[in-house]
Amino acid sequence: MHVPFVDLKAQYENHKEEIDSAISSVISETAFIRGKYVADFEKAFAESYGVKHCIACANGTDALFIVFKMLGIGAGDEVITTANSWIASSETISLTGARVVFTDLEDDYYNLDSAKIEALITPRTKAILPVHLLGQAAKMDVIMKIAKHHKLLVIEDCAQAHFAEFNGQRVGTFGSAATFSFYPGKNLGAYGDAGAIITNDPALAEKFRIFANHGADRKNKHDHVMEGINSRMDGLQAAILSAKLPHIASWTAARKEKAARYDALLKNIPQVMTPKVRPEASHVYHVYCIRVPQRDGLQEFLKENGIDTSRHYPTILPLLQAYAYLGHTAADFPVAAQHSKEILSLPIYPEISDAQQDHVVNMIKKFYSAS
After folding, report:
1. For the packed helices 295-304 and 354-370, what is the interaxial angle rounded to 10 degrees?
2. Cβ of 357: how many Cβ atoms within 10 Å?
3. Which of 257, 289, 299, 342 is least surrounded, with the fewest CB atoms within 10 Å of its CB?
4. What number is the average pLDDT over the span 56-71?
């Protein structure tokens, strides 16, 4: 039996008519760049999320960069973020000219450890970037309290946590702005690169739109009020996302059901630590991440038995070659460094069958019973 890590074909087959119709409409109208399909998606996503403004852009990385630049973050500034994420979370800080400052993780919930933030604040600190990793919210009450006390900006990276909540409030609605990736494998995914920014601040929204469109005045594209970048969501991706958006609530509920089933099936395997859910948060399970001994051996064994897995992430950000100039060692981030040796992400998506989950769990049992 083959168990893919993500099964986008199954999702497409379940909603083929809606998606094909959306794609056909864009092609028949040649509405390929910006236009009504992008505007429709922005409006629908903002309404679904309960915010005033959604600014579509080319990808989640651009979304972060646009926000940092338009919030005035640059040379001489520092931004505090997590030691464990995809490099987009940190490289976009550095690309503004600012310095990235990494903090260690919470052992239980895999997000940045809010208790370690204040020790990293200096006169140069300008912002905090919590990354709601794997589908679960960072501890936003503490982060916002720290930010308010020290007069810091908060930008939320929600690439892996669409519609997750903290204390009943959706992630992405706490700080000045938040960013999303709609990479195909995300909980809400396009069929190519796509991203977005949300905010409730109309002045910021206007800046984000202008900067993402070559700095052009929105009433006259030939009048550039600043130098910007070219970061446009295309019409095809917008139409596909609009077709998928009405299903996100049911898909999220299905992910939670599949996660609960994994929890029940794995609880009697002593070597496996299943994901913990923060009491005041809702987990949307972009990833179902376990912690295990002999992680690499288990991953290879599962692969041999038709099961695709992933590691989020095999090397923590401060130890990548790109950040060698910071001079960090694993001892600076003991929790994150330990996690990187133990974490393994299992297949999870709304369409995964009971038989597929059973196969995953049975192979995990077989591996540890033989070791």
Report:
1. 130
2. 20
3. 257
4. 98
Q: Which strand (E) or helix (H) includes residue 291?
A: strand 288-291
Top-confidence residue, 265 or 222:
265
Choose among 146, 59, 108: nearest CA to 283.
108
DSSP one-letter code for 149: H
Place of tokens 């739109």: 209
CB atoms within 10 A of CB 328: 18
- Tell me the two tokens of residue 178: 């938040």
pLDDT at 34: 81
In the block, tokens 């087959």 appear at 13
3-state secondary structure of 284: coil
Tokens read off for 365:
């049992």
What are the residues facing 236 on neighbouring strands? none
CB 159 within 8 Å of CB 5: no
- Sequence letter at residue 95: L
- Using alpha carbons only, what angle is made at residue 336 by residues 333 and 337, rounded to the nearest 5 degrees? 75
Tens digits of residue pLDDT in 289-324: 999 999 999 999 999 999 999 999 999 999 999 999
Query: Which has the closest alpha carbon to 295: 276, 314, 277?
Result: 314
pLDDT band at 223 (very low <50, low <70, confident <90, very high): confident
Determine phi and psi for 31, rounding to 5 degrees: -95, 65
Q: What are phi and psi of 70, to 5 degrees?
A: -80, -15
Confidence class for position 371, pLDDT limits 50, 70, 90 = confident
The secondary element (H helix, E strand) that includes residue 179 is strand 177-181
Residue 145 tokens read as 């309290």
CB under 8 Å to 123, separation ≥6 — which residues?
A: none
The model's confidence at residue 370, banded by pLDDT at 50, 70 and 90, is confident
Q: Tell me the β-bridge partners of 216.
A: 224
- Spatial distance between the Cα atoms of 233 and 35, rounded to a whole number of angstroms: 10
Q: What does 217-238 look like in DSSP terms, one character per residue?
A: ETTEEEEESS---B---BHHHH
End-to-end CA distance of the chain: 23
Which strands, in side-by-side order, build the sheet including 281-282? 169-170, 165-166, 281-282
With contact defined as beta carbons under 8 Å apart, do 171 and 132 qualify?
yes
